[in-house]
Amino acid sequence: MVAAHVVSPSAIQPRSAGAVLAQSRDAVMPALRAAVDTLPASMRHVAGYHFGWWDEHGRPVEADPGKALRPALVLLSAAAVGGAGQAVSGAGQAVGGAYGQVVTGAVAVELVHNFSLLHDDVMDGDATRRHRPTAWSVFGTSAAILAGDALLTLAMDTLLASGHPAATRATGMLGAAVQRLIDGQSADLDFERRADVDVEACLAMAQAKTGALLGSACAIGALLGGGRPAQVLRLAQFGEDLGLAFQFADDLLGIWGDPATTGKPVHSDLRSRKKSLPVVAALTSGTPAGLELAAFYTGASALPEPQVGRAATLVEAAGARMWSQAQADQLLVRALDALAAAEADPLVEAELCELARFATRRDR
Q1: What is the Cα–Cα distance from 36 to 283, expressed in whole angstroms?
Q2: Sign of the four-CA dihedral 308, 310, 313, 318
Q3: What is the pLDDT of residues 134-144, one digit of tens each?
């Protein structure tokens, strides 16, 4: 086994986004699995399946681990303000001490994210995630909801027990982000029953549902890394703007993403008549394409298959696909401006820039 050691970010070259995500997963995964192992057996079973560690019978499998973007943001934000450095280990083991406390923050954020995924899959009726059946479709809705509840509680307990002097404040930040996330998800569900959703309301929903947790991830990382108040604030803004840009990219994938890379059927958001950002932009465009699309969105059941492809064509014809990508690009610029104002370590800032570009220009 190769011993873990700490290397200052200023002593290494900036990594690609893929390398950042892979190494962050390696650092966080042992602590994440250790945290999940403390759950009651029933919840551990469902959670482990959801994370892709084993099949429905508890047999180990090699499944898609997901991007783990949020833990990477925690680790990089801590390093950006000079806190704890970057762990490097041939065995993928995180070191303890100050860096271990930052890893604990990353674990807590990832637990919250997966709490939201478990519940979202139930509420949205999604049967596939990461190329395999969702937890609720295997274990039932009640088990998936309870597993999500267990992960949320575990996230708060884990962060509070980290031993960091700012653990209580960081837990408060994470709790506030969860409240905003829930409010955003509530608005998203409400949109399904409304015909009067405008772009402003949809942006507010996405900012709460996605931006809040990414902003919190960056703020918690900066806080645990010992950042100055102004740095914590700027990195939080970076994460918030990145989160909204990420949601635009995700909504585009929900319509035009390749199932081989997204793990979901093509046009999945249209099939369920989801009022995503591109769809709402098209519906409110006042164009002939937008008016035709509105007729498709009057029902409550799944969109009939012959209309699904036509709906995608209409969203693009209304200019909403191009508008959504332009919005993502503008938000990326705003996020990077906030990052620059944080006066971060230059090499870590470069890695955060790479990660931000990956998140807004991606195929999965």
Answers
A1: 43
A2: negative
A3: 999 999 999 99
